[in-house]
Amino acid sequence: MLVAAVDTSTTTLSCALLELGPDGLAVHSSRREMPAGAAGGHSLRLPNLLVELLRPAGYTIRDVGGWAVGLGPGSFTGLRIGLATWKGLAYANRRPIAGASSLAALALEASSAAPEESLLVPLLDARKGEVYAGFYRRSAEGVKALSPPAALAPPALLDRLAAMGPALGFGEGYEAFRQVFAGSLPELPGAPATPSAEAVGRLASDGLARYDEAALFALEPHYVRLSEAEVKFPQGLPTGPRPA
């Protein structure tokens, strides 16, 4: 089965094609990433990026047998674009779709650079003085989540890690607060800064056995924290006549 995977949780857009077969998932075609600052947002860049992967291999969108998407946490807008695009393609072609944590994908790709049993803490920049943090144990089989992801200020993250033991941090969130983390949370050398679509595909592959329309409609981003609108209007938008 040809699997198209994407992650749009950060300003870096990552897309990959993988082959799901009896021996598991293997990279079918080199993944593509469009770095922060590239012209146009994800909504403009994503469709072309997918076509650019499919065309050289002689494939079209109809040849894609499964869709894998990063569910965040990360940019609210980016996550909505990636999920809406992939859900639309999966629904139109009646193909299975599955999601995976973007933090888990970041940890999985970094795990090869870490000693076995390491506590891995992938970090994405959550803005507003916080990071999105994941907590994973590295093993021979990959990575295992130790607790749910959280949006934390750097000092609060360090307090939590004090009770969890030695850890290795990495990702764009680490870079954003390097001065705070230095000396308290060692950086994992050679780790990626943002999640890759290839890792998302590997994590989501078990959920691509069959097309399930109910599961497709139920798939939602993992925002972790409330949106700005939910913070300002916890009871919903006010009703009644608008002021003149």
What is the topology?
Layout: E1 2-7, E2 13-21, E3 24-34, H1 42-54, E4 66-70, H2 76-93, E5 97-100, H3 102-110, E6 119-127, E7 130-139, E8 142-152, H4 154-162, E9 168-170, H5 172-176, H6 178-181, H7 197-204, H8 213-218, H9 228-232
Parallel strand pairs: 1-4, 4-5, 6-9
Antiparallel strand pairs: 1-2, 2-3, 6-7, 7-8
How is this structure best summarized?
The protein has helices spanning 42-54, 76-93, 102-110, 154-162, 172-176, 178-181, 197-204, 213-218, 228-232; strands spanning 2-7, 13-21, 24-34, 66-70, 97-100, 119-127, 130-139, 142-152, 168-170. It is an alpha/beta fold and 244 residues long.
Structure description:
There is one protein chain. The chain has 244 residues and is α/β, with parallel strands linked by helices. It has two domains: 2-101 and 195-232, Nucleotidyltransferase, domain 5; 103-181, ATPase, nucleotide binding domain (Nucleotidyltransferase, domain 5), CATH 3.30.420. Helix content is 32%, strand content 28%. The protein contains nine helices and nine strands. It has helices spanning 42-54, 76-93, 102-110, 154-162, 172-176, 178-181, 197-204, 213-218, 228-232, and strands at residues 2-7, 13-21, 24-34, 66-70, 97-100, 119-127, 130-139, 142-152, 168-170. The strands form two sheets. A five-stranded mixed sheet has the order 3-2-1-4-5, sandwiched between helices. Helix 3 (102-110) packs across helix 7 (197-204). It starts with a strand and ends in a 12-residue tail after the last helix. 45% of the residues are buried.
